[in-house]
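Q: What would this chain look like folded?
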Amino acid sequence: MVSQTLSVGQNPSLKENKPILIVDNVSKRFGSFYALQNIFLTVPEKSIVLLIGPNGSGKTTLINCISGVYKPDGGKILFNEKDITKMQIHDIVRIGLVRSFQVPAPFKKLTVAENLLVCGQNNPGENFLRSLNRRRWRVFERELVERMFKVLRTVGLEDKADTLAGELSGGQLKLLELGRLLMMNPKMMLLDEPIGGVNPVLANKILSHIIDIRNEFGASFMIVEHRLDIVMKYVDYVYVLSKGNLIASGSPTEIVEKKELYDVYLA
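A: My prediction, written as structure tokens:
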């Protein structure tokens, strides 16, 4: 079920990095049903953390709580030492925590380059008073275009800059989604099934680009993914959820040796 080749993404300096995300005793219920119960986990800076578990284990619910879609019923969430438990989604994005969804939703009638450019944050031209200073927004837009070309190279879409998003393959849409998030200058990305439905060759390519983003831009990642045979060798640390509970955690090597992993998938 899980590959034993576990060396690509592991970062030996993680123990020296402070946590960028702390999920502290978080619970979430819907009526009398607890989707999450007393979850505690941390994500170090410049790390790639994997969140796994069978369907219905609470993975997407946890991502929704962290990103502000849901408000936890208990506990708190700290991002970059700031309490974001009750913050609105747009405020969470503004401080550098962004997320993707399982199905990419770009502007299909815009080109790849245009899709990236519209994700630029805090354009002075969008504010009436600041827009009167022409030099300020021209400098901003020049820097935004430079960042766009850098992002295109990082996610491997430089040859698709002028292609309409609606003409991209499923795997290329996943890469575009990564690029759109990267244009927001994030400190951390929450990725919900970034290689879902993608052939193994392109899946490995997408995960390699995630490694590149971590190394070049210093971003941290929490990834939800079911394809353990592919993803395990790219991550630094793994958390396992089952029925709303955190049942195991450890390095990829440690996790594949834990009985709990096989119990929840084979039960």
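Residues 1-8 have pLDDT under 50 and may be disordered.
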